[in-house]
Design goal:
The chain has a single domain, classed as Collagenase (Catalytic Domain). 45% of the residues lie in helices and 18% in strands. The protein contains 5 helices and 4 strands; from the N terminus they run βαβαββααα. A 4-stranded mixed sheet has the order 1-2-4-3, sandwiched between helices. β1, α1 and β2 form a beta-alpha-beta unit. The radius of gyration is 15 Å and the shape is globular.
Length: 148
């Protein structure tokens, strides 16, 4: 059993290394007691994430992160189904969010990798203003604080 992480950049420059991204995903899985997972993290252009956003979520425009949980298994015991999922991150949107939140781009990219990984692991959050009060957000921020 293992946590395998594939990272692609589509030719984009990102402020954290591919190895760091793999480490973040593995750290989240380890802390969530998931030992069997296959996760891909793709850093994509605003136009590509906007297409994904429109096609799969019915929303217009670019967003910072989109996650697809392809197989939800518990990923924790031999014979169980591994967790499988894809995470798409738009670094340009992440940079704008970092400026707005007055945090560094590396911290914001870490937050998005953690956020996407939690979704792959089956966590969900409300889409309204209360999302920052929910369990997933608290877990996310605790993980970001421990990782950064």
């Amino acid at each position: 059993m293992s946590v395998a992480v594939d990272v692609s950049r589509d030719g984009l420059r990102i402020a954290i290394s591919e190895e760091r991204v793999r480490d973040i995903v593995r750290t989240v899985c380890r802390r969530e007691r998931v030992t069997d997972a296959l996760v891909s993290v793709a850093f994509v252009s605003n136009s590509r994430i906007a297409r994904l956003n429109r096609e799969y979520l019915g929303h217009s425009g670019a967003t910072d992160v989109i996650t697809f949980e392809l197989r939800s298994g518990d990923g924790t015991s031999q014979g169980a189904q591994p967790v499988i999922g894809d995470i798409y991150i738009a670094p340009t949107v992440a940079a704008a969010n970092a400026r707005e939140a007055r945090v560094g781009i590396r911290e914001e990219l870490t937050r998005l990798v953690v956020h996407g990984t939690l979704h792959v692991l089956g966590y969900a959050h409300d889409e309204d203003a209360d999302r920052m009060q929910g369990e997933m957000w608290r877990r996310q921020e605790a993980l970001v604080a421990a990782i950064v």
